[in-house]
Design goal:
The complex is a heterodimer of chains A (about 110) and B (about 220). Chain A has about 110 residues and is mainly α. Chain A has helices spanning about 1-20, 30-50, 55-80, 85-95, 95-109. Chain A is built from five helices and no strands. Helix content of chain B is about 65%, strand content about 0%. Chain B is built from eleven helices and no strands. Classes of the chains: A mainly alpha (about 110), B mainly alpha (about 220). Chains A and B meet through helix 1 and helix 2 of A and helix 2, helix 3, helix 5, helix 6 and helix 7 of B.
């Protein structure tokens, strides 16, 4: 058993020695230029992404929760402090507020 | 009284310090984050040896430049998030190690090249290594092409994360805490993974040694 372990350790030592030789490598002269080309491309992509639909939709979903919460709080606030509000809200749901506004506009003209 | 000769710049103005003020990593990072992309090239030139040093230990020779490039691009993308808690070099080293891990994960996922196999020459190399007594002969054997091929053969059979942790902890001899930081794992996970990886490697070695050696 000891002899077997010695052999395993010998191979492990060999692997360590092989791995130790791996650290040195020559770098191509154009490597820096290639990296900078890739970096510039990334930078252009990042600017393009500002107007990307995916980014915009992410932005919408990121704030969707907070927006809903604010809407609920405002609704609750107006229901508690303005007794006329529930009726207004119900009317807005069941009637056509746009048509109503247009009619009042035409009346005024 | 003799006037000491001082180095002069293009305008003929004498300078006390011939070496111009070299900006720190933090100053360069600041410039890049503020939009001066070209300043990133200074960081590339300053730290490419470090990146190549790490990458060359963990990926095959033909992929070193591509992975090193990937490291630099990732560093650029994450530069705004660099907190400065550790040095830039340490941060870059972390990105390099994780990129190597990703390289192996990706290669395993899209494996097109079959796993390497061993030939009679490799078996002869193992036999010679096990019978050699002198350090000189040992080093001579380690220099041979078969040595690297056998190491690749063994590492190919270990999971990507395991091969990285094995290399860092058992081969390079890094403290577990440092390896954990580089891999982004907890110390416990690193310890467990390193232990398992070594056990796996030993199983492969036992197979390499073969029946005739394991029974004696």
């Amino acid at each position: 058993m000891k002899a077997r372990n010695d052999r395993i350790e010998k191979l492990e030592d060999a692997f360590k020695a092989i791995h130790g030789r791996e650290g040195t490598v020559s770098i191509s002269p154009d490597w820096d230029a290639r990296v900078m080309r890739a970096v510039r491309w990334q930078a252009r992509q990042a600017v393009g992404k500002l107007f990307d639909f995916e980014v915009l939709s992410n932005l919408v979903w990121r704030f969707a929760g907070a927006t809903c919460l604010v809407a609920l709080l405002l609704t609750a606030y107006s229901m508690v402090f303005d007794p006329g509000m529930p009726t207004e809200v119900a009317r807005a749901f069941f009637e056509d507020p746009l048509a109503m506004d247009l009619a009042s506009f035409l009346e005024a003209v | 009284m003799a006037i000491p000769h001082l180095p002069q710049d293009e305008d003929g103005v004498a300078r006390d310090d011939p070496t111009p003020h070299a900006p720190s990593d933090q100053e360069i990072i600041q410039r890049v984050v503020q939009g001066d992309i070209e300043a990133f090239e200074i960081l590339v030139k300053l730290h490419r040896s470090l990146v190549f040093g790490v990458v060359a230990r963990h990926v095959p020779r033909e992929s070193i430049e591509d992975v090193a490039q990937e490291v630099m691009v990732r560093a650029y993308q994450s530069l705004a998030g660099f907190s400065g808690r550790s040095s830039f070099r340490q941060w870059l080293r972390t990105i390099a190690v994780r990129s190597c891990c990703d390289y192996w994960r990706d290669r395993q996922r899209h494996r097109e090249i079959p796993l390497s196999t061993l030939t009679e020459d490799h078996q002869t190399w193992v036999d010679q290594l096990l019978t050699t007594q002198s350090r000189e002969a040992f080093h001579h054997l380690v220099e041979r092409t078969e040595a690297k091929e056998i190491l690749d053969y063994a590492l190919e059979r270990i999971a990507p994360e395991d091969r990285l942790v094995l290399s860092l902890v058992h081969v390079e001899g890094l403290p577990v805490k440092e390896a954990a930081e580089l891999l982004g794992w907890s110390v416990i996970k690193t310890k467990v993974k390193a232990h398992r990886a070594r056990r796996e490697m030993r199983k492969i070695i036992v197979k390499l040694i073969g029946e005739r050696w394991s029974t004696s």
